[in-house]
Amino acid sequence: MAAPDHAVLAVASVGVRLGGRQVLDDVSFSLGAGEFVGLIGSNGAGKTTLLRVILGLQASTGQVTMGGAAGTSRRGLIGYVPQKIHLDPDMPVRARDLVGLGLDGQRLGLPLPSRRKRLLADEMLTAVDATRFADQRVGSLSGGEQQRVMIAHALISRPQLLLLDEPLANLDISSAQEIIALLAKICREQQVSVLISAHEMNSLLPVMDRIVYMAGGRAASGTTAEVIREDVLSKLYGHHVDVLNVHGRVLVVAHAGEGFEILAGDDATAEPAHPDHQADEAGQ
Amino acid sequence: MTAIFAPGFFGSSPVHVALAVGGISALVCGVVGTFTVLRGQSYAGHALADISVTGGSASFLANISPLWGFAGTGVLAAGVMDMIGAGQQRGRDLATGIVRGAGLGLAALFLFWASTSTSTTGSAVTILFGSMFTIAPGTLPLVAAFGLPALIIVAVLFRPLVLSSVSAELAAARGVRVRFAGLACLIAIALAVSLAAISIGAILSTALLVGPAAIALRLTRSPGRATVAAAVIGVAATWIGILLAYDSFDWPPSHNGWPVSFFIVVLIFLGYLGVQFAGRRQRAG
Fold first, then answer.
1. Is residue A2 part of a domain?
2. pLDDT (tens digit, 9 = 90+) per residue, B132-180?
3. C-alpha A280: how far from its chain's center?
4. Is residue B215 within 8 Å of B278, Cβ to Cβ?
5. Which chain A residue lies closest to B215 (C-alpha atoms)?
């Protein structure tokens, strides 16, 4: 895995130990300008911890650099969409307000009305197709609508890198597809790099330039053709796994006792398949 | 005119003090209360009110303005609550509950001493339920001095507080020092509660803190407008309450006047019922 010369983000040998457990172990990968990269792994694989390290919210060993400069504040260069947050429907924060806070939410003092800020917020709301509900309270919006607002919030500061933590979780299939298409479009048109974490990779396969596949705190990265292979993933998991192509879906499967366990490619990732369910899944 | 403003209303010095102290308290409570509700810290507000009773009753024994006691214990308790319950919401509620119980226990002792050692049997009623027309005129500068820092905290931290009430994680990722902002907000709540306590009593103080804010959050959609609306609603309820209490000196049963706190709390409660009812009709229709 050779790092591109113009890497927007370079993660080198990052390790994190929490409570005696190695949550991240020698994770290295890099992200080029305008690349769409999926951070794939089951729950507990270390995806959120890795995103927190990149954001500077979690101390780690190893190095994270952005735009070539080491150690400097990365916050201005990153737009962040956190995992599903619960918003009170009565909270008096309009979609428009939340997008504006992406520009100056950390600033002190009272916010003064600004024409520039208003126009920028309008532009972002249009970019994510959220003008219809711009003046509604964010808490009253659907999951997919809230994700659009969060993406506009993350984009308004013109970041080089968009980090999204499981933005597709809790969305129905068609909303998830819309969000993926929107992100791919933003990535292409605004030349912003996207790093999106997900436990399900199949919906992202058509749009991913590269993949960072995580298991047990370790990562393998490259194009999907380079990573989603039996030898690479078996090495990553530390035991033999099969990569199957079932009805156009990629499944990563391991032997588990008498039966097998689907490690990736199905929504029920980390859960060992129950013998009764195996028949169902084989039949699908 | 005299049907609304009973003769002597504008000439009475206790009324002037009540209007000024009540107005400033309601203004500060409206502004700070909006963020109390926005951040889901109403429970902390209630606890700070209970704990501040300790200081209020102690200052009766020390013969200083109860406002010193209310504000002093409130701010101290805010610090302790932040220290022992900085982690999770659940931890914070538990820590708050324990400090609250201890504070009220001490208050019981101090109020007992105050009522047995002095001839002023009204100390308990004044501390717990307020006595707007008997506030010493010298309290007014003190009210302004305690209210101003609370307003400054909210003004300076306005955007970080809104952002971290949407998501603490999101705020932290943007470089907001979430814990520091939370502590500063808690101190502002303690100061606002102490002003409400001197006006309408420690037990009722959260009505002035949380009530106008809850009404304003129903009526408005942006944090800025909600803050202004809460302040206006709070001041209006307080001033109308003072007026009604002044008028009530002619009312039965005793022709001694009804307590100001009663009118203010009832007005806020009716306002809240009104917007709740209107909101439900709107949603149903």
1. no
2. 788 888 889 999 999 999 999 999 999 999 999 888 888 988 889 988 9
3. 30
4. no
5. A90
